[in-house]
């Protein structure tokens, strides 16, 4: 979610609210963020525990109560977020806006339609709040470097994964021919699923080859998967190595003539304008 | 498939056809490629869905119709490819030429011999069309770098995988001795298959050691496999690191004044003597 | 455990004892360490063997005897450690102090309360001695480099693992919705456990998707897990590469003539101006 | 096996034999090696096929015949190897000498004692010939680099694997406590085996946690294993990167004054004697 720019025409209380809810520079703003994070984590734990049948029977009332407390808080948060910015649609139709709305609605539907008629589909919507955990990532500084390294090697990794998928389609089809439905490879999509499970070295074992030829092909896939995992690793590793050495080797001493900032530490003259550099 | 060189002696319509089918520079040529790609993907999806028994019963007629549409298109494509080049044998006996032919024939055989007498072996030929997906790779530029990095480290990776196979043969034989047929290690090839499943960290679990000594040896193999995966990764990673730093950081243009050879590609002045560089 | 500083006010025999127990510079000190290490390893093997039911019945008396020998030795060691330093609380409340105490007590409790009433919880305490194996790590020099490399990339790896956990929470919840209790995904925590098992490419196979959609999502997770393992590898690899090249190739001694700073440690003359270098 | 040095006092035919058997520079020497390699591979395939019960019944006579052909050839090879060198004990007590002898004996024992009384232990000796496959590695040049890279990082990898074993001992003991014999974790060694299976991401699934706490600890181990695999990869990768950049960057132009061979490409003066370098 992009932080909507502070609108100068907002009334004073709206501005204050905006600073608290969307900002992190004031004490109250930080407090709001911390309370929100705690509640997000709590609401996710609540959803998890509710899914455990034995807990749900035992602590049904407590869960019901906690659910309402969280629902009300998130409803208030949703309303405050809307009224504190000038262009509410920007928030409403953002990823988090939709998640916030959809994961809050079910409790109200269940309340008005009646608990006994609670539809599974409506209930499932509540699980959307698990996506709110992504809000936590905003608060972690270091993650930017990782994301940028991943972004830089995104093209190469995509191609690699695409190649993996093609290998899996071909070997999956081959295994369907070799093993056939009588050995568990009931159809081609399932065989491709098996090839993915095998190439990625997960190996559930729910399906596995039974004929000698099938096992030979499987050995082949596994060894390829084992050798080929080196490729994405090499890509990201090289990317990170480059980033690190860049950060390390290029010491930012600025050319007094042209302002060029990136010089190799061994340079005596600016490579941009040819002026002599005074190393610090 | 190598792109056959454009023959000057072709008649005009043949040349036009050639440019459309084998080329990618004209609008029609690109359209032809896109339509072909879509049909390849569709034909593969069709083959996959047909292999699902429940779908095949339900949508038999639709599948039959789609099959014929695709067969006719690929037949026309095959004929056009042959008549538009001067040396058709070059295409016919290329990998894609054989795949294109073999995967198109079955539909005709089934039609003339009769649907009820459809042999499995003939039907299986149709699955060859899955190899056509490799044509897609032609259109991805970035993949060249990956392939070149893999090619450069091919020798080392082959040796590594060869070493893996030798370790698996030895440990597989050992496990056959230790565990024996009564614990599922019924023969040496199967034990070697198990060793490959284990060393590559796939671990299906269809066969697993049951004696303490067998488990001890298995632990040994697993830890080796876990530690040794570093080797191909290191190879490819080092190879890529080298490629990247070569491509990115140093273009070899020599300073005409001091002879310094390593300059950043963006440098306009030599960082060693301050002389203006004439980039080539 | 930090090595408590040698206190000058200790009586002579206390000082001698201190040097033997906490030091490694004297012959007796090294002997003490070796005997201790052997006994730690033996006590761990003993605990392991005792847990095997068939061995425990067969060799019950020998185990009982060995248990007491080890208990008495560790008790003496514990007492000596306390009386040989001035501030015993520093040792007593250190990690190893607590482990040493808790893992020695059970034998006495069992002896005084009676063997037949031996509580499982008390017995379990004895297993704490397995943590004593960590003392062994103190004696391995090379491990420092590894630990420092890990420490340097700790922040990045933590974020990476945090991201992995978030992905697992989201996909686990998704799989609970898609597969549901009837396919083994009985509740959300279990589904998250499955997602972790799958993403980390372990793949036990106790739970696995059975619906086509579930298998599709699973394929997605597996391919992500397979591609994403590159990230921590890249981080540590880059970190180590940096450490190695730093340590190996460039010792910073500056040429007194031209100021060139990067010389190979074996160089005797500056490679930039040819002046003799005075290595420090 | 070290190549025994050519002894000048050998009679002429012994020298010729020596050159053929131990050398690879003559035509006959290479032919001998190729025949030997083929026979080693054939003998291993034979042992594998014999272990498959159905093949053994069907082709018993053929296997028996092939076995004798191979046994006789390897016997002759063994005798020739002994008589062609001056110090036969050097070969006899080398690794391959023992393997060659032990794997040839069983056939004779079975022949003289009688086929029906064939002891399993004697038969098992024949499987030793699988180690002969290691002879193949001698012929691969590239493998030296890999082995040297592994050797250089041997110390670090050993410590890493030692750390893995310690983690497995601790978590295995923990899981024994948490899950206990009733959930398949029947004793501590088995639990440690499970921890190894899990940490190395193999995951057979023969044993897996069933309690929530056990699953939580398992998740922890898996995520550690997934994150920690980066360490050996980083070690080997960094080692290889170093090797490669060494090979690449240090261009062998020899100092005309002192003969020092390794100079950085940017050096203008020899770092060993201070003489001006004439770059080629």
Automatic annotation (TrEMBL), chains A, B, C, D:
Its main location: membrane. Keywords: Ion channel, Ion transport, Membrane, Potassium, Potassium channel, Potassium transport, Transmembrane, Transmembrane helix, Transport, Voltage-gated channel. The keyword Manganese does not apply. InterPro entries: Ion_trans_dom, VG_K_chnl, Volt_channel_dom_sf. It is found in: Membrane. Residues 30-245 form the Ion transport domain. The keyword 4Fe-4S does not apply. It comes from the Bacteria. The chain crosses the membrane at residues 34-53, 65-85, 157-178, 184-204, 216-238. GO terms for biological process: action potential. This is Ion transporter.
